[in-house]
Amino acid sequence: MFPLIRNVSVFALQYVVAILAAMHADDHAIGAIVGRAISGATSGYFIGSTIALLREYWRRRSGSTQ
After folding, report:
1. Which class for 14: exposed (0-12), middle (13-18), buried (19 or more C-beta within 10 A)?
2. Helix, strand counts (H, E) of the chain
3. How distant is the alpha carbon of residue 11 from its chain centre?
4. Would the pTM count as exceeding 0.70?
5. pLDDT, tens digit, 9 for 90 and up, residues 7-36
6. Rg of the chain taking only CA atoms, in angstroms
7. Which residue has the higher pLDDT, 10 or 65?
8. In a 10 Å sphere around its CB, with 0-12 CB exposed, 13-18 middle and 19+ buried, how is residue 9 labelled?
9. Closest Cα partner for 31 from 20, 46, 39?
10. Which of 1, 8, 10, 47 is deepest in the core (most CB within 10 A)?
């Protein structure tokens, strides 16, 4: 249940930032920077969690064959 809530929260945050950037077009530079920062952080988070999941999988798989 936690991963679902976490993922929906992350995408909701990205959506809110995109809406705010569209509504306040005069502050376009700040909105673009914040949007890119959140997008980059989200990508890094998901890549990191995928790597952690794969490492755990490989660790358990190699432990079960010995």
Report:
1. middle
2. 2, 0
3. 8
4. no
5. 888 888 888 877 877 777 666 677 777 778
6. 17
7. 10
8. exposed
9. 20
10. 10
One-letter amino acid at 60 equals R
Q: How many CB atoms lie within 10 A of CB 33?
A: 11
CA 66, distance to chain mean position in Å, is 36
What does the domain layout of the chain look like in residue ranges? Answer: 2-64
Q: Is the pLDDT of residue 65 over 90?
A: no
Helix (H, G, I), strand (E, B) or coil at 34: helix
The residue type found at 35 is: G
